[in-house]
Structures are given as structure tokens and as C-alpha cells.
Amino acid sequence: GNSVTQMEGPVTLSEEAFLTINCTYTATGYPSLFWYVQYPGEGLQLLLKATKADDKGSNKGFEATYRKETTSFHLEKGSVQVSDSAVYFCASDRRGTGFQKLVFGTGTRLLVSP
Amino acid sequence: NAGVMQNPRHLVRRRGQEARLRCSPMKGHSHVYWYRQLPEEGLKFMVYLQKENIIDESGMPKERFSAEFPKEGPSILRIQQVVRGDSAAYFCASSPGPFREDTQYFGPGTRLTVL
After folding, report:
1. Stretch (H or E) spanning B11
2. A residues 62-101 lying closer than 8 A (beta carbon) to B
3. Pairing outcome for strands A11-14 and A108-113
4. Which residues are registered as beta bridge partners of B97?
5. What pLDDT, on a 0 to 100 scale, did the predictor assign at position A97?
6. pLDDT per residue as tens digits for the range B15-38
């Protein structure tokens, strides 16, 4: 079945540093890929997604590119802010189910200090 | 426009008691999903419901767990005779449609602790 592996946290950065959170997936076929973000005390919010190989999802300065050859969907941001501190979840969906059946990684906590 | 609501946010139960978790989807959404997050693990799919129908319950434990989404009112995830291993965060999501393209919107979760 599908699985998603992402780097363990916490990731601790200073403001304006470059961010990379690694995510790799295993799947049969070509799943859609997602990054969700969870701020303290809130539910998960969709940050960005990509539905096919070489697609780039982007939102709020974050980017991730669907790489079929390396089965990866790494999250990047050029200059992080304190307000980006949150837990980030990588996810894929399972094809053949007819609906969006999400498979999540374990989450990576990002801490950004001023 | 209120988001997905879950209550209670925190629930403490003793072994053998019942736990009822409620989820009110976003306005206009008739598709609900439940996920469970065990400590140090990712969210895992449990069940997908439409109004009055269970569409996919392949992630639900075979015993003690049940879910419903009645015509009126919130979706309920029910855990009977809870055990310590049920301690987890339970997240509900809703979507406007049943398709893979439909974004799921998540609630803040219910943290269940079994003593």
C-alpha cells in the first residue's frame, strides 16, 4: 500500500533562513501529493498540492515539486518567518478508491526563532 | 464561515467506558472523514461517510468502533469499552464533494486519553 516518509523534527531555524523538509512516498500508480500545515490548537490546513509528475505546488512562499524519478515532494521556502512555526504533514492519496483517501507522514515540527 | 467543528477538544475516559466524538462539517459539506493519530505516528484514515451512508470503513478497527453521519446533526465516532491503546488524537475532515479533487478541510481534533 501507499506510505509517506518525512524527516523527523523538530527543525529549528532562525528567521529568514532557507527551509527544506524532505518527503518521499511509495505508491502504486501516480498519486496526488499534498502538504498540510497545522498551527497550534488548530486543524490541518491544505498548504499546497500537486497532481502529476513535474507539477509544482506553491502557496505563501512555500513550494514543492512532484518528482516521479525520486518519488519525492520536498517542501521548500526561501526565507522563513516566525509565523511559519507549525507542524507540517506530507500526504499522498490512494488511487482506485474513487475519493481522496489520504495517507500521511508523521509530521515535522518547524520552530523559527527571531 | 465556520470551519469544521469538533467536540469535545479533550476527552478523558477510564478503561471500559464509552467515548463519543462529534464532528460538524463545514456548511454545505456532506462528506465526512475520520482519521486517528497515535503518538509519534501520522494520521491514519479510519472511515468515510456521506449523509446516512458509510462509504468506506476499511481503516476502522473491527470491534468497538463505529461511526455514523445522520441526516440531521453531527457525525459521531463512537468507541465502546475503551482501552489504553485508544488514546490518540482523532481528526475529522469534510469536503464539498466525493471526488479526489475535492479538498478536505480538517477540524482541530479531539484528544482522547484513556486512564
Report:
1. strand B10-13
2. 89, 93, 95, 97-101
3. parallel
4. none
5. 66
6. 999 999 999 999 989 999 999 998
